[in-house]
């Protein structure tokens, strides 16, 4: 066990997955504003008569500054590429090998699980596909996928989130 809120990490291959998302810049303290975009995105899909191909997720592109402002997308997978508009973008989860683990517990504790998974990957000599530009940490594939939860969904301590970091192509073996 890597950390009390995280399951055993694994490396697994993912196929490319189209999605639609709403880009946003936010801090961890703005989680309510970020979460509210899920309903907006689901409504957008309904108006376009497009069915989701899975559960919502967050894609993180970049974190910078002392207050950790995240450039991210609130997203929903779809069956095929979709043209966005001024608010919604169409994109893809990159195919490749990912180091993943399930965070169990309150979403406020996910940061500890993210750090634990990254430390585990370092100990295993796996290279997460990211780079630094000055103080900005930029990721090619950092995701938080919402795992189906029971009827106790209103109890935040029973939530589960799959954390996934894309590995560099050299580690895709």
TrEMBL record:
InterPro entries: AraC_E-bd, GyrI-like, Reg_factor_effector_dom_sf
A Pfam family hit: GyrI-like
Entry-linked SUPFAM superfamilies: Probable bacterial effector-binding domain
Residue ranges constituting the AraC effector-binding domain according to the UniProt record: 7-150
Protein name as catalogued: Transcriptional regulator
Organism: Planococcus versutus
High-level lineage: Bacteria, Bacillati, Bacillota, Bacilli, Bacillales
């Amino acid at each position: 066990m890597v950390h009390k809120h995280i399951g055993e990490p694994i490396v697994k291959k993912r196929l490319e997955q189209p999605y639609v998302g709403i880009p946003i810049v936010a801090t961890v303290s703005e989680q309510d504003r970020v979460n509210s975009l899920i309903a907006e995105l689901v409504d957008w899909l309904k108006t376009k008569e497009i069915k989701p191909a899975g559960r919502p997720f967050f894609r993180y592109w970049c974190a910078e500054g002392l207050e950790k402002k995240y450039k991210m997308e609130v997203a929903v997978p779809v069956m095929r590429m979709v043209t966005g508009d001024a608010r919604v973008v169409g994109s893809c989860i990159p195919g490749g090998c990912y180091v993943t683990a399930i965070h169990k517990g309150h979403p406020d504790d996910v940061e500890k699980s993210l750090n634990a998974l990254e430390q585990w990957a370092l100990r295993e000599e796996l290279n997460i596909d990211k780079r630094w530009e000055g103080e900005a940490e930029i990721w090619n594939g950092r995701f938080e996928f919402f795992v189906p939860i029971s009827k106790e969904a209103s109890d935040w301590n029973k939530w589960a989130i799959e954390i996934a970091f894309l590995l560099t192509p050299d580690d895709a073996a």
